[in-house]
Amino acid sequence: MTIVTPANDPGTAEPARRVVASEPAGPVLVPRVVTRLIPGTPAPLVVALGDSVTAGVGDSAGAVSGWSAHLAHRMRARHCNLGRNGARAADVRQQQLPVALTSGARLATVFIGGNDVLRGDFDPDSVCTDAAATLTALRQADIQPLLVLPPMVGPELPAPAAVRRVLGRRTEQLREALLVAVLLAEAAAGSVLTVDAQQVRAQAGASVFHIDRIHPSPTGHRLLAAHAARRLVRAGWVDSGRVVPVPPVPSLPLRVGWLVARGLPWLARRSRDLLPELASVVWREEIAPALASRR
User: Fold this and answer.
1) CATH 3.40.50.1110 region(s) of the chain?
2) Domain SGNH hydrolase-type esterase: where (predicted)?
3) How far is 149 from 176, CA to CA, in rounded Å?
4) 2-249: in CATH 1.20.120.450
5) Could you tell me which of 75, 108, 77 has the C-alpha nearest to residue 241?
6) CB 13, CB 243: distance < 8 Å
7) Tell me: the pLDDT tens digits for 85-94?
8) What integer is the mean pLDDT of 8-32?
9) What is the structure's pLDDT at 1?
10) Within 13 Å and on the Cβ side, how many CA atoms surround 181?
11) What's the mean per-residue pLDDT of the chain?
12) What is the distance between the alpha carbons of residues 69 and 79, in angstroms, rounded to a whole number?
């Protein structure tokens, strides 16, 4: 685990440097009600919980990679990314939350549920329970949670219409479950900030998606960070407006090379468990009811 700290010169947008988390950084001395940095005090820490989107899949490589890292960069904050590929809501609660609670962070970004939607045992109530417990625990530890509502499934997803319908229904259930989790956490512990990623897609269309049409593109990661920054400003934070430039779009040969070298192997690994489950879900929720209605 690493923590990324802002560049020394607050007036530049230079890439942040990395320090190992075990280095003594000292407590965050800035009071919770004060968001402007006081000279001589450590920058506030943003801790990121979630899955591959939080981990930065789809973004360009570098010291600032992933939407939460871009958000921390804008807020001149340190950043600790706990996101992991394949993480489900229960994994975030059981594995990432305990680390976040002892991190000394002032803000925790939470992006969860996408991998739950893809599983045959998807249960919105369980996701709601895990999300509510995560948000409540963060709030009780004086860490401000910022939850992202995932975007709806659109026509850009490279899948048959039946698959898109199933995933669309499930994503809608996921969004509803997360909203209930927010209400439960707020009733138990205090305010939870939310950002709707659907608004990001509505603003920029297909450009927010990576070549795999599942994860955000470099543009998508930055736009999500910008939306989150605006929400934080309304809550009293200060947005520096610093943005790491979007890298040039790779040439067609490079994109094809990425698909062959990384995309297809990833798809093959995930297909061993996801595709059979997804096929079972489509049969149960789409094909079987249609056949039964014809009898």
Assistant:
1) 2-249
2) 48-223
3) 9
4) no
5) 75
6) yes
7) 989 999 999 9
8) 33
9) 60
10) 33
11) 80
12) 6
